[in-house]
């Protein structure tokens, strides 16, 4: 039952820890899933990237950032800290750490964007049955996932491979430090590509193929299974959190769906930040569509969708490289241009391809340029090209879901009304603009509130929806031909 405090805030409260790819953030949410606005701490950081495909962080430094953010939030909350009834965590996924018998890291924290294992992924695809593994685990044999990561570690660092007692994620490492033991939550475990997605156990055939043992992976825990009892010095450092339930980390994509009100099949989340993703929550996914993935939110809910390597990064690169004018002037120019009127066909694969073709080494291509082509036409064609990639994912993901609403979040589209309209026209479907500023943290909080019985079902809470962008169906018809031209260019250059 909600408890109203002197501040007017209704508890129990949830402390959320959001560990993203560029910042750590701690927040407080009330019993209705509303952010307690005056409390929020953020610390920015950058993953270390190298020209060889490296994308890593120091795992201990990552935890120290979390600890500092918790310290500051609890200090700011004062008496309200005593009303915290749960701690919820989400992290960037997929990530990887090898640890020794004493729980100390043998490797850096290796992020999903690390592509040093590209050759290993290719070798696994040649030697294993990728379609069968895709259906069993929901993941392909690609650089983002653990099968290729493990094969790379075994090949390139045999001494580390021999010393590795366990392979874990950042959420597990946090739990290990705080409690002296750790579990693998079903959500990040599913992002590893090592989980049997229907039986919800570590995939034994894949373990055998890779030469690893089940004891080298943490025991699995449902998203709703808490752990209690902070060990020292953390129990003394945060006495108000010592005995409250801490829930296993979940994937940031799953949290974003729940937090934006897309917790059931009738609402689809389209996120366009630096990169992009189209995701839907389902209870049952019998067959994973080709080129897409299927992760877990928890034991009851699956998350199926596709992600792109392109999004706001394409817009940012073009603005910088083409030396475009100020955003307001660019928006006006984009708005007054007709669809596909520039004569260009663009594969906007500046950062390689994930869904649906997973050509990780693909390069961006532009055809159809003349001496009359202008920078703004290249931008417009590129933004349309990114929208076509979402259309290819939607074609596989949304078959038979014509009534589902598409909810848009992320800075990429929120900062460009013209691009949002392009996406609506390309998909031929209305878009609902989400007004939830912290969807990922909110999603983690809602799942924790559901787990402690404060709410009955995350899908029943009202979403923070904003304006509806209607498609221009005449433009939709034009874009169908443009999508086909992009398909033909893809087949010609990539196959």
Given helix and strand content, the structural type is alpha+beta
Total separate domains = 2
Full CATH superfamily name of the largest domain: ATPase, nucleotide binding domain
- How many whole angstroms does the radius of gyration measure? 23 Å
> Which outline best applies?
globular
Task: Give the CATH class of the largest domain.
Answer: Alpha Beta
Q: What ranges have pLDDT less than 50 throughout 5 or more consecutive residues?
A: none
Distance between the termini: 58 Å
* Individual helix count: 17
Name of the CATH architecture of the largest domain: 2-Layer Sandwich
Describe this entry's structure for a reader.
By secondary structure, the protein is α+β, with helices and mostly antiparallel strands. The protein has two domains: 3-252, ATPase, nucleotide binding domain (Nucleotidyltransferase, domain 5), CATH 3.30.420.40; 262-435 and 464-495, Nucleotidyltransferase, domain 5, CATH 3.30.420. The protein has 17 helices and 25 strands. The chain has a seven-stranded mixed sheet with strand order 19-20-18-17-23-24-25, with helices on both faces. Strands 5-4-3-8-16 form a five-stranded mixed sheet, with helices on both faces. It has a three-stranded antiparallel sheet with strand order 6-7-10. A hairpin with a 3-residue loop joins strand 3 and strand 4. Helix 10 (252-259) crosses helix 16 (439-451), helix 13 (375-397) crosses helix 15 and helix 15 (417-427) crosses helix 17 (473-493).
């Amino acid at each position: 039952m909600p408890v109203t405090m002197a501040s007017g805030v209704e508890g129990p409260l949830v402390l959320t820890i959001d560990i993203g790819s560029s910042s750590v953030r701690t927040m407080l949410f009330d019993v209705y899933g509303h952010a307690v606005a005056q409390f929020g701490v953020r610390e920015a950081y950058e993953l270390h990237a190298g020209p060889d495909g490296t994308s890593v962080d120091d795992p201990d430094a990552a935890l120290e950032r979390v600890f500092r953010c918790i310290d500051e939030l609890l200090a700011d909350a004062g008496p309200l800290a005593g009303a915290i009834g749960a701690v919820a965590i989400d992290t960037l996924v997929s990530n990887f750490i090898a640890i020794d018998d004493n729980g100390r890291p043998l490797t850096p924290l290796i992020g999903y964007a690390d592509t040093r294992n590209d050759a290993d992924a290719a070798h696994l695809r040649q030697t294993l049955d990728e379609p069968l593994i895709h259906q069993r685990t929901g993941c392909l044999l690609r650089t983002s996932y653990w099968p290729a990561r493990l094969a790379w570690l075994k090949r390139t660092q045999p001494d580390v491979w021999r010393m590795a007692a366990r392979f874990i994620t950042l959420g597990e490492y946090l739990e290990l430090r705080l409690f002296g033991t750790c579990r693998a939550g079903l959500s990040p475990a599913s992002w590893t590509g090592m989980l049997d997605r229907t039986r919800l156990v570590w995939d034994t055939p894949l373990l055998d193929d890779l030469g690893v043992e089940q004891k080298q992976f943490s025991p699995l825990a449902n998203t709703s299974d808490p752990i209690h009892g902070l060990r020292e010095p953390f129990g003394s450092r945060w006495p108000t959190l010592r005995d409250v339930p801490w829930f296993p980390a979940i994937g940031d994509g799953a949290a974003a769906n729940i937090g934006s009100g897309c917790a059931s099949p009738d609402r689809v989340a389209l996120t366009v930040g630096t990169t992009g993703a189209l995701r839907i929550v389902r209870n049952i996914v019998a067959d994973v569509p080709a080129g897409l993935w299927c992760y877990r939110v928890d034991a009851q809910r699956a998350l199926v969708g596709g992600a792109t390597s392109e999004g706001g990064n394409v817009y940012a690169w073009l603005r910088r490289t083409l030396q475009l004018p100020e955003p307001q002037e660019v928006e006006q120019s984009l708005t007054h241009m007709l669809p596909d009127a520039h004569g260009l066909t663009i594969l906007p694969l500046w950062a390689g391809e994930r869904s649906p073709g997973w050509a990780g080494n693909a390069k961006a291509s532009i055809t159809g340029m003349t001496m009359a082509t202008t920078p703004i036409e290249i931008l417009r064609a590129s933004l349309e090209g990114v929208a076509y990639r979402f259309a290819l994912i939607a074609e596989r993901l949304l078959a038979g879901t014509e009534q589902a609403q598409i909810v848009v979040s992320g800075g990429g589209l929120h900062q460009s009304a013209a691009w949002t309209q392009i996406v609506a026209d390309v998909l031929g479907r209305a878009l609902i603009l989400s007004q939830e500023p912290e969807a990922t943290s909110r999603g983690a909080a809602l799942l924790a509130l559901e787990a402690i019985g404060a709410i009955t079902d995350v899908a029943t809470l009202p979403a923070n929806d904003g304006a509806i962008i209607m498609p221009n169906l005449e433009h939709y018809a034009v874009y169908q031909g443009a999508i086909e031209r992009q398909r033909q260019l893809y087949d010609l250059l990539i196959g």
